[in-house]
Amino acid sequence: MMETLIAFVTALVILAGAGFALVAAIGLNRLPDVYTRMHAASKAGTVGSGLLLLAVGLHAGDLPTFARALAGFFFFVLTAPVSAHLLAMAAHKVGYPLSTQSVRDEMKGRE
Amino acid sequence: MTTFLLSLVFAFVWVAITGSATLHNLIFGFALSTLSLWIVRGEVGTRGYWRRLGRILSLLALFLKELALSAWKVAVLVMRPRMDLKPGIFAFPLTVDRDFEITLLANLITLTPGTLSVDVSEDRKTLFVHAIDCSDIEATKRDIANGFERKIMEAFR
């Protein structure tokens, strides 16, 4: 009974994680410029891979693996925003334009 | 005393992560965490540790909630057939002034709904934030200032 329940939860978490990863990929394709794309990559991507790692930990069913999966998620959360931030900053520095839908740019000329 | 307890906690984390629950490994983990804590002894104020721990945990809970919400919002936005965006970069005046607080705030902002930190001004008084929906900047600024920024101040001052 317990094993079935864990298997069921694991399957659900894997599906959710894969779903978020897919959404991140679709977002990268559909959003108009590099800045908005970073939103999709950093958020949906982090949550997607985090859920997949969590599923690995749950499936293994022992504490060391679970702790390592959690540590992996933790490092993802630490590093994903830094890379998104660096990419966005570099893009702005070399003058990559915001999409034409953009309504404001208060950073212009203030770096 | 607090340092000793912290070392012990870290030692158990070490045992859990390395995955071998032997006495040798526990002692090794303890030595390692004592050494690491000694290296950062100047940065970690040990006074008021437990009260602070509660606030850090509350910050963590808020963050996990916002992260889930933000991934969901991006998902909904991306799957909508007509994407109605009003993206833009706005300047957020910083109240926190220490480097690691700014870093933490920038990271938290990046992982929360609709906002992405782009750069910090030279004088460290302004954070430039890219928002996917710039229709109500003042509300976004208020949310950040009353949410994460206040919690960071409570946890680390």
Automatic annotation (TrEMBL), chain A:
Please indicate if the UniProt record lists Membrane as a keyword.
Answer: yes
Please list every transmembrane segment annotated in the UniProt record, as residue ranges: 6-28, 40-60, 66-88
Instruction: Please give one Pfam family short name.
Output: PhaG_MnhG_YufB
Q: Entry's NCBIfam families? A: CPA3_mnhG_phaG (TIGR01300), PRK12674.1-2 (NF009314)
Keywords from the UniProt entry: Membrane, Transmembrane, Transmembrane helix
Record InterPro entries: PhaG_MnhG_YufB
Task: Tell me which PANTHER family the record gives.
Answer: ANTIPORTER SUBUNIT MNHG2-RELATED
Keyword flag Membrane: yes
Q: What is this protein called?
A: Multicomponent Na+:H+ antiporter subunit G
Q: Which GO terms describe its molecular function?
A: sodium:proton antiporter activity
From TrEMBL, chain B:
Q: To which protein family does this belong?
A: Belongs to the CPA3 antiporters (TC 2.A.63) subunit E family.
Q: Does the keyword Transmembrane helix apply?
A: yes
Organism listed in the record? Xaviernesmea oryzae
Q: What is the superkingdom listed in this entry's lineage? A: Bacteria
Name the residues that span the membrane: 56-78
Protein's UniProt keywords contain Transmembrane = yes
Single GO MF descriptor:
monoatomic cation transmembrane transporter activity
InterPro entries linked to this entry: Cation_antiport_E
Where is the protein localized?
Cell membrane
Q: Which GO terms describe its cellular component?
A: plasma membrane
Descriptive protein name: Multicomponent Na+:H+ antiporter subunit E
Q: How does it sit in the membrane?
A: Multi-pass membrane protein
Q: Which UniProt keywords apply?
A: Cell membrane, Membrane, Transmembrane, Transmembrane helix
